[in-house]
Amino acid sequence: MDPSHVQDVAVHVAVMVISSSRTEKEDTAGKKIQSLCKDASIPVDHYVVIPDNIEKIRGELQVALKKANCVIITGGTGITHDDCTIEAVEPLLQKCLTGFGELFRSKSFEEIGTRMVLSRATAGIIDGKAVFCIPGSKNAAELATRDIILPEISHILTHANR
Predict the structure, then answer these.
(1) pLDDT higher than 60, residue 1
(2) What's the chain's Rg over C-alpha atoms?
């Protein structure tokens, strides 16, 4: 691969857990993401659990973007009445990474079958930083982080900052 295609980027992660029912103590998805980042020697510089609320999600995303160049938001991506992560984040994305959601759903299909249609997982770029919105289950968080986000984050950030 052309060395200019993927730069050696210092990746810093922020993890946002969106849940109206879980506390930090009960969070498994965010902790799994942190563990996978640690195993990959990628620092997690911000971690928070906040409720499903558009204004709170947007406010906390601004905080996270000041601390990290890769924000992983887990939870609130489904279709229940209180799921609003996508509504909070999508309007702020300057570039959408549609392939992320497509690949995540494809990989999810292998694990959970047609239930994957309930996932609205998405990703994009804000000011040269990557933002991923993934489901709140531990298995989904692990799949997205391990199989897609961590292998591609340097590539994504290289292109986002050209």
Answers:
(1) no
(2) 15
